[in-house]
Fold this protein.
Amino acid sequence: MKIRELELERYLAKYEFLAPYIFCTSDSESFEINQLLEMDVEYSEKLKKLKLSYVDPQGSEYLREEISSLYSNVSSEEIVILSGAAEGIFVIMNALLEKGDHVIVQWPCYQPLYEIPAAIGCQVTKWEMEENSKWELDLDFFRDNIKNNTKMVIINNPHNPTGYLFSTEFVTQLVNIAKEKNIWIFSDEVYRFSEYDEKNRTSAISDIYDKGISLGAMSKVFGLGGLRIGWASIKDKEVMRKVISFKDYTTICCSSTSEMISALAIRNRNQIIKRNMHIIKANLDLLDDFFKKYNHLLEWVRPKATAIGFPKIKFDMDIKDFSNDLLEKKGVLILPGYVFGDYNKNFRIGFGKLNTKEVLKKFEEYISENLIK
Ligand SMILES: Cc1ncc(COP(=O)(O)O)c(C=O)c1O
């Protein structure tokens, strides 16, 4: 399989560990192992006695059991543990899709959601979100673009890079159309549980549709990306079998240590998510003031979930040049929109971290020294 480079990761790899002020990553503030162990005596004792052997390729039963508690209608047998959600996208698409299949992908998107089906040889239709309507998606477009060979629709809810969140009504209608046309829904839900208002959280796709696959991860609202643990819930037994068997060629199984720390974190999720949502919401207040103050220079569609957003510059400059200049002069790293495709005015910001106030101060210095005459 020939596959294009993943622009976002290549860009981050170049600067993320050098730039002093990171203002673009999508994860939350992380935890030290010590802090996690203090949350759960039982798991911390188990961890000391854990043998570092291979584990079940589908993932250890106790972790699948903890993860199934995140769903209302998914059992532990319907969960597969993955080395990051990234592995999930790769193995599931490879297990389910074939050359010549047609897929419809929400756009813009995290590049693998588009790139992997394209590399498999699928026909890919971009289902574009409408920036002028606060990033909404038009269901009629989906209906009108279904073909005889449409196998899958790929969505990301809540969404990277916009922080958009579907309504329950939208998800219900999407499932109804997919059901009628017998289409798989691949729903990347790695940002689930980061909704600013819990009442707006939509059902996981796999809870409401047998041909719906939900992807989850420890990396985003949990802030535990270094564990490299993700998972997918898959109801169809044959697809589950194929996914596990494809994994034999990628990682065989996950890290036993990471699996156990993930189980601990999921059991103690209320505490972890509460702390991280507190940070995100406090930063969101700062951003509201920031974008209000500079609304003659920057356009901002306030996200509904996640620690990311996709604002836009209103002045005459290419986003690549703006990102480079901001990094060079003030050490602030934003993610230029071109890594998500043809977005030459937008940039992704990430505000899940404790130093966001400090980062914004640097951004403001840049604005007053360079953009305000
Ligand atoms: C939408 C989406 N899916 C999947 C991933 C990969 O997640 P992980 O780091 O858990 O593999 C990311 C990472 O940024 C993402 O934004």
Remarks:
- Residues 26, 84-86, 110, 156, 160, 188, 190, 217, 219, 225, 230 surround pyridoxal-5'-phosphate (CB under 6 Å).
